[in-house]
Amino acid sequence: MSAPPYAPIDLAPARVTATPLAGGGWLLESPDKLTPHWPHLVAALVHWAEAAPARTFLAERDAGGGWRRLTYADAAAQSARIAQALLDRGISADRPAMVLSDNGIDHALLLLGAMQAGAPLAPISPAYSLMSQDHGKLRHIFALLRPGLVYASDGQKFARALAALDLKGVEVAVSANPPAGIAATAFSDLLAAPAGPAVATARSALGPDTIVKFLFTSGSTGIPKGVVNTQRMLCSNQQGLTQIWRFLAARPPVLVDWLPWNHTFGGNHNFNLVLWNGGTMYIDDGKPAPGLIDRTARNLGEIAPTIYFNVPRGYDMLLPFLERDADLRRRLFGELDLLHYAGAALPRSLWERLEAQIVAVRGQRIFMASSWGSTETAPMATAVHYRIAEAGNIGLPAPGVAVKLVPESGRLEMRVKGPNVTPGYWRDPAQTAAAFDADGYLRMGDAGRLADPADPARGLVFDGRIGENFKLMSGTWVEVGTLRVGAIAAAQPAIQDAVVAGHDRENIGLLVFPSLAGCRALCPEAGAEATLAELIARPALREKIAAGLAAWNRAHPGNSTRIARALLMAEPPSIDANEITDKGYINQRAVLTRRAALVERLFAGKPGPDVIAPAGGGA
Description:
This protein is α/β, with parallel strands linked by helices. About 35% of the residues lie in helices and about 20% in strands. Among the domains are: about 70-205, Rossmann fold (3-Layer(aba) Sandwich); about 470-610, ANL, C-terminal domain (GMP Synthetase, Chain A, domain 3), CATH 3.30.300. The protein has a nine-stranded antiparallel sheet with strand order 1-2-20-21-22-23-19-18-17. Strands 6-5-7-8-9 form a five-stranded parallel sheet, with helices on one face. Strands 4-3-13-12 form a four-stranded mixed sheet.
């Protein structure tokens, strides 16, 4: 039986200029230049406030469970008032505004107000305030920024984090529940004064090099770096998207989105996509976590998006809801133009399950795509705008962007140049200098290869992190990214994530973060209240995981691909130890370092009863 057809969608043709480099590698460039566009995002806000003043720009859940809505006209007017308040307070790059809270309308108004004032905003991961025990990262960021204003949506919720900071001379603003013992300004006070001539003057001074944000990325060291995000970076990203995803011009996009604004994917790519195209964003108060994924399903059950963005972990947790709820399937897929995944490859099993649900609703497949970039590229460097049959392809350089593939450690490192690239790290000239090569290309640390060297227009395939792959004692390289995705798929739904170990050893092992929901599904007899520690000790679960990994080994019998051992861990990854980000991405190196004792148990000459040794692993 032939595969169902694709729903029609307007995309730019796949084109690239590919130049071989002396010594190996390629220089890939889009033949399409960026067309003239708005010089800053404030121009987009003003345009839509005039062209569609009553259209909902943002919506979030209110206390009664309904939707609080903000129109484009109100967003422009209220953020102009906030701009006046920030100008009155002398907020600037040297004294920026700092946000501790999750996504929300007040957070967005503060961002738009700071933009109109020409002052940077620094949205900080709420996990640094709420999940951290020592607030070390938060205090480091605070000392680097020296902010003039710190905002928290709920003062009591963030009281412990605020108390960890030296707030002398720093104003604290909250939308609700002032923290005990800390003087705080009500957010409504920032809206009290009308916008005066100073706001118009600040707007007229905006330009491509105006700093919009400081976004923090910790990388492998765990020390947060402040990535400077300019108007040029953000606007070139959005203009490039409109040129390759031409369907955006057909109707204003509607998003239901949880991705955090302190990360570049949610805060730059998705938020600005809505603003640039006059769309509507429903702020999803759920996320891929037990208890919170139910909120995402509820929100998607009410609002039909035209584009849906998520990370593979999010799709994994959402699929059981979709597979048992026909109404939810119809709501999510009925109006969808594009389904997008990023941050990690989507396992083939998840791809097929998603496509089956889409076809059940539409009778057709829809465009499933990904993109690649980083906080330093705001975020898009490459994007998929052509049909792909499975995950792994990360697209072609966006208009205006060049990607250089340079031989490094047996693979090709991807380096980027273009208007989307950061000028550097805030108050860190050494890190800035180290980030660029002699030709001015940003060193990304990711490897890539052409899907088809004979036809470069078929795109790039992500080939893992340069620093994650390792050699076995045999001298054979292990491709960590490919192996990790394969292992998760082979033992689904038991594995939430996995860390690949085996550097300078004879065989490969896995440190496994099990999925609580998946383990409960595989062991229904254990009951809905069974803990993860109880579940991973059950012989039936361990046998199922061993069988899945054994099947992987049969299909991948080579020394560099077969899995010899696996150890299930009940302790979740630690954000203080830099093992995980608040989007759920695992830092392989940090886990292996912090859990070195578990690695030794994994590879012990006589493995303990907690170590799984699947058939065909060679151990």
